[in-house]
Amino acid sequence: MSFDLNAVPLLSRSAVDRADEVRADDQALKEGWGEARVLRVNRKGQFRFAEGALLLEAAVELSAEPDPAAVFLGIGDGRHLWAVRDKDLTGELTDLRALADEIDDFTAGVLTSAMALLNWHDKAGFHAGDGSATVATKGGWSRVTEEGHEEFPRIDPAVICLIHDGGDRVLLARQHTWPPTLFSILAGFVEAGESLERCVEREMKEEVGLDVRDIHYLGSQPWPFPRSLMLGFAAVADPEQPLAFSDGEIAEAHWFTRAEVRAALAVGDWSARKDGARLLLPGSISIARTIVESWAALD
Question: Count of CB atoms within 10 A of residue 205's CB?
């Protein structure tokens, strides 16, 4: 039984115009700076958030003109939006994982781009080809060397797949570092020279020893931890095939019925930590939650 997502994953939503035509226009960036707003993010990915909204400050409080260390995120509510790394950021802080249901489309659009870009800049100070120093350009959307060699922000594609039996059961797994009752669907990074479908086959085999078929693409979600793109799939496997955890990442995996999954979804996410609960599921920030909810909603 195939299915599709019944909602857009939380972090795939955005109310920010990425305004790529502005990035390379230094004059436009300067003109927009006077009314622009800036998000400060520390090294831990924490920022200020209060009363259901990101706390953004006037860009001119940071500098008179666009700061070379800041990254241009786009335009929201008619103003340019930027983000900057602030290792000394203090006060009451939170992070993206902790916000969960408080994330609206504007917040999602700002945070996913800000965190991914800043994380890339943290590691992109030198050119991968010749080791020469690079400087940010185009509002933080590229870095160039003195000789003009240009690099662009990296993303790391990863597949995430719900395995079901074609009927009423789904396979959920737990990593060694997770709480005893927290289970989710399986994920892994795409290797060089590999298609997404072949990655699904390989990762499911490596992680739980199952041969999957009827691979079906569902949707995608940015995952800026540090700069991944999660590509969601569903696939069918035989529940009678023995499980094998050959790559060492999975501590245990079990087949759960749709009724058990629905009961777990009603509890909330893993942070609920309900006493006696056999199964807790990921929070709404992850596409895993959307995929599981979509499967569980089938009649």
Answer: 16
- The 10 Å Cβ neighbour count of residue 175 is 14
The pTM (predicted TM-score) of the whole model is 0.94
Map the chain to HEC letters. CCCCCCCCCHHHCCCCECCHHHHCCHHHHHHHHCCCEEEEECCCCEECEECCEECCEEHHHCCCCCCCCCEEEEEECCEEEEEEECCCCCCCCEEHHHHHHHCCHHHHHHHHHHHHHHHHHHHCCECCCCCCECEEEHHHCEEECCCCCEECCCCEEEEEEEEECCCCEEEEEEECCCCCCECECEEEECCCCCCHHHHHHHHHHHHHCCCCEEEEEEEEEEECCCCEEEEEEEEECCCCCCCCCCCCCEEEEEEEEHHHHHHHHHHCEHHHCCCCCCCEECCCCCHHHHHHHHHHCCC
What count of other Cβ atoms lies within 10 Å of the Cβ of residue 265? Answer: 16
User: Which residues touch 51 (CB under 8 Å, ≥6 apart)?
Assistant: none
* Residue 109 structure tokens: 């659009």
Burial class (CB in 10 A: 0-12, 13-18, 19+), 94: middle
Considering only CA atoms, which of 212, 271, 263, 262 is closest in space to residue 236?
212
Give me the average pLDDT of each 10-residue run along the chain (299 residues).
94 96 97 98 96 96 96 97 96 92 93 97 93 96 95 96 98 95 96 98 97 98 96 98 93 97 88 71 94 96
| End-to-end CA separation in angstroms for the chain | 10
